[in-house]
Hints:
Blueprint: E1 10-14, H1 16-27, E2 34-38, H2 44-49, H3 52-55, H4 61-68, H5 81-90, E3 97-103, H6 109-122, E4 127-131, H7 137-150
Parallel strand pairs: 1-2, 2-3, 3-4
Amino acid sequence: MYHQKREDTFIAGLSMGGYGALVNGLKYNETFGAIGGFSSGLLLEGVVSGSKKFAGMMPGNKFYESIFGDLAKVLGSEKDYKALAEGLVREKKTLPKLFLACGTEDFLLPEHREFRQFLTDLGYPFTYEEGPGGHEWAFWDTYIKKFIDWLPLGEAVQGISSGHVME
């Protein structure tokens, strides 16, 4: 019989998929042992506040409401990565390992640096890397490989587990 182990279960994504990996990894912290986010869509506060920075990217609030629901209710909800991380630390829950990466030319770099500081202040352990590149595959290819090297894959036991990654 196959038994899924938390320490052998990982979630990762890039851009809005990085947002999804972060939210789901934190929300289902008993399922996921590690989370990887690459140029993650850390834009909740900007979207909710109506920041002009993100206004040109998507066709207005209706677009964001179709993703997040009522924007007035997003912050502090289960869609809010900060609220989820804060809740896990406050409740002394099992924390998934966290790997975040963002390119130094990525338009989301300020949000990543702010989230890095938030996690530091919260006392949530994490790995954070920046490197040359923008919101693009050239950057993601490099850092996805770094994430795979960072994962505890060598600790997997023989059998069916995510420790058997094929390249």
